[in-house]
Amino acid sequence: MLWLVACMLLPPALQRLVILSCLGSLAACRDPRPPSSESKACEGTNLLPSPDDLAARGPWPVGVRTLVVGAVRVEVWYPARPGSERGGVPVQYDPRDSMPASEAAKIPDAAAALLACDCVRDLPVDTTHGPYPVILFLHGAASFRFQSAFLATHWASRGFVTIAPDLPGVGLRAILGGEPTGFPLSVPSDVLAAIVQRPPSRDPFELLRPHLGARVAVVGHSLGAMLASTLGDRPEIAVRIALAGTLDRSGSGSRLSISGETDGIAPPSRAPDRLADLPSPARAAIVRRAGHLAFTDLCLLGADRGGSLAIARAHGVNIPEMIATIATDGCRATDAPFATTAPAIRALTTGALEETLRCDPAKATAIHALGDRADVELLEQLTPPP
Question: Which residues, in sequence order, are CB contacts of 186 under 8 Å at separation 6+?
Fold first, then answer.
């Protein structure tokens, strides 16, 4: 289980907190109840229409900026002005930037595995539309802020601003010995505070501030889902999504958890009552043959050379065995390939986001229909608990 791996990486006092925050499991089975047909629209919002296919990219090109909130680097993907991407160079992220310098230096440029992003740095924001709802994304253990660029850019292309901080103490740099390990309890709340309210001093989101919507979704992968639970009952949080992690039961708002059928780090649960006491709408899904890293781009890194783990080890990077287990779950030959699992993950998350943050009740029907697919099991709780 991931919580046990996380505990092994943290001091004893923090281990107890992680254990308490991680109790619970995911659920997923099919509920035949039809979705609500209530209709409404977000007032004061002007957004381009997105394709009915929730897995299809939206109408905006995606810009990206790297900012600093306090002492934490954050990546921001946003809807850019249509046409501004022409002639731009798509970003390629280098995971060596998230490693201790001494370890990163062991991997020469010619051997580096880069993460391709369908985004262009520093494009102008589309100021003719908006405001854009915000997604706070929290990465998993031994990882980094851009681990799930395929999701961040997908959401941004459909009219969301996605903000992903590095999580000090549990990220790749900490696990490889480049900084002290420790649970970064304050980071999610600090970044969220900077998103929803202009800081009294320098505003890291100054260029985007006029275009940020008032409501926020929090999405966490694995250990990031555990960290999301520390945010508690914040009224600006309208959607909470756990990827390969536990459902957060605090506060109000829409809920979605997605797990992978073959995930050995955070195995899925099919307990049918797991959503019974959650606010409506609440959903849980299992993606067939998806492993722990199906919710990231990490299985694509160096896939033609045995994967990023094999590349790092071939060049003498010291990888703890417990991290090697995480680094391969979802990338095995028995797991479904990224091209197979990514569409379902894009569709499920996008549906939950647009249903609430774009005030689009038709998305409830679209999400419900995903449960008819062979690659998805779906449980829905669409009426308030008694």
Answer: none
- Please name the residue that has the structure tokens 């009552």: 273
- CA 147 distance to own-chain centroid: 8
With a CB cutoff of 8 Å and minimum separation 6, the contacts of 109 are none
Say how far apart CA 130 and CA 57 lie, in whole Å. Answer: 18
Closest of 255, 345, 246, 228 to residue 295, by C-alpha: 345
Residues 216 and 240: their CA atoms lie apart, in Å, by 9
Instruction: Tell me the pairing of strands 115-121 and 132-138.
Output: unpaired
Predicted confidence (pLDDT) per residue in 70-98, tens digit? 999 999 999 999 999 999 999 999 999 99
- Residues with Cβ within 8 Å of 13's Cβ and at least 6 positions away in sequence, in order, are none
Q: What SS3 state is found at 51? A: coil
Of 6-10, 151-155, 166-170, 225-229, least confident by mean pLDDT is 6-10
| Alpha carbons 136 and 147: distance in angstroms, whole number | 14
Omega before residue 281 within 30° of 0, cis: yes
Q: Distance between CA 143 and CA 95 in Å, rounded?
A: 9
10 close to 275: Cβ distance less than 8 angstroms: no
Pairing, β 72-79 against β 161-165: antiparallel
DSSP reduced 3-state for 338: helix
Cα separations (Å) of 282 from 11, 28, 223, 312? 34, 11, 21, 40
pLDDT at 160 over 60: yes
The Cα-based distances of 293 to 42, 108, 336 in angstroms read 34, 25, 11
For residues 40 and 355, the answer to whether their CB atoms sit within 8 Å is: no
Q: Which tokens go with 228? A: 């999301």
Q: Which of 216, 261, 185 is nearest to 26 (CA)?
A: 261
pLDDT digits (tens, 9 = 90+) for 105-122: 999 999 999 999 999 999
Q: Is 65:121 a contact under the CB 8 Å cutoff?
A: yes
First-to-last C-alpha distance (Å) of the chain: 32
